[in-house]
Known about the structure:
By secondary structure, the chain is an alpha+beta fold. The chain has two domains: 2-145, no CATH class; 151-408, CATH 3.30.1330.60. 33% of the residues lie in helices and 25% in strands. It has helices at 2-9, 32-35, 70-75, 88-99, 117-125, 151-171, 183-200, 216-222, 238-255, 334-353, 379-389, and strands at residues 10-15, 18-24, 28-29, 37-42, 46-52, 55-56, 78-83, 105-111, 137-145, 179-182, 259-269, 278-279, 299-301, 304-305, 308-309, 317-318, 325-327, 330-331, 358-367, 392-400. The strands form six sheets. Strands 1, 2, 3, 5, 6, 8 and 9 form a seven-stranded mixed β-sheet that branches. Strands 10-20-11-19-16 form a five-stranded mixed β-sheet. A two-stranded antiparallel sheet has the order 4-7. It is globular, with a radius of gyration of 25 Å. It starts with a helix and ends in a 10-residue tail after the last strand. The relative contact order is 0.11.
Amino acid sequence: MRIFVWLVVAQCFSFAGWALPVEVREAIPFSSLSSGATITKHERSWVVDVRLGQVGVRRLFVEIDPGVKVLGYYLGLNEEVSIKVKDAKALAELRSIAINEEDPFLELVWIDKKKSIPRRVNDALEPLPLLSPWESAGTIRIPLELDDLSPCEQVTRLVYTSIDDILKLKFSRSGQTETRVNLDQVFSLLLNEKVEPFIRTLDPVDPRRSCFKDFALYKWLKKENVEGFEFARYKLQPGLMRLLVAVVDSLARMRLKRYLFEISVTGYADPDIVLSPISLSNSETGIDGWDNVSQTIKVYYDGCFKDMMEQASSVLLGFDSATGELVGARIDNNCELGAVRAYVAAGFLRSKLGDIGVKYKYGTGGVLLGKDDSVALSNEERKKRNALKRKVEVAIVARAADKLAPQEIP
């Protein structure tokens, strides 16, 4: 009977290289995490991680596991533990992550920390799991029931699930050939065919629609009084970061199916010249944990002089490349500013997606020219136009790994 149950609950969750049992529990209301939701678990299972989808969220919870009692450990007893977030701020952050998931669930990852006789027997038999009498690790999966979603939360969920659907459709041909996708086209398709039609179905007098006034994600999609970057700055804006996170989550899921990606980022500036040097600093990127990407910001560029590109398309460099012109400790022109913006956006994607099966390139486009540059505009109209020129363009090329030579597969 034990072997049968193990086979039923085993899922493809990898811990130390082996498929582990996943125990699915009944759904709990999301709001119950504020006061604490009680669950039962084995005494011997020590909770070492908490995840929501692909995001580690253990830091948002108070300590879940009180410890292992010796008697309960050897008798195989259960205990009750409380799953509770630390505070209202942690609950809000957790909710923002859950909204991005179509079917959100918490996953408690546990291990058996004791080097007991049953544990030693299990370790010895682990290559033959059907004979293993004592699992040494596993997960508890708890579906979450979200409360009534606001219109902005509904749009956020639609954005995340739709980006995933669009990218999957775009890359479905990459089994036969390389497929290139420009994210500007993806975001335009998302706005026109998904988000705007959905918003038109909402009750026009619903007071909760007021959330759209400060909804950075929606404003960025519409390019409505919001720029990719502040004037003379290279810090990523919240709306752009949220969209890039949705892209990263989708790519991470597809990578598990043996896709390889090449991500290229081109940065642009508006026509206003850099009047005073702009300092380069990790803290100005807007990225938490930039030190995990690179200890120092070393940005290079090529094919651009002062403010303008020297050819039709930007020259792309590898993220860790040391070729071309080095941007010093200060940014002196728009070619350098575009390069730094591209480098920061590529670094953000790298910090979220990692290096396995992904290559990153970046380049500068200098000043982004437009058809209306020669048109006389009011000062306010010119500011709005220039804000839209401060941007990055992200393109993704996907290939199926099974189409590569063995030495090319990571």
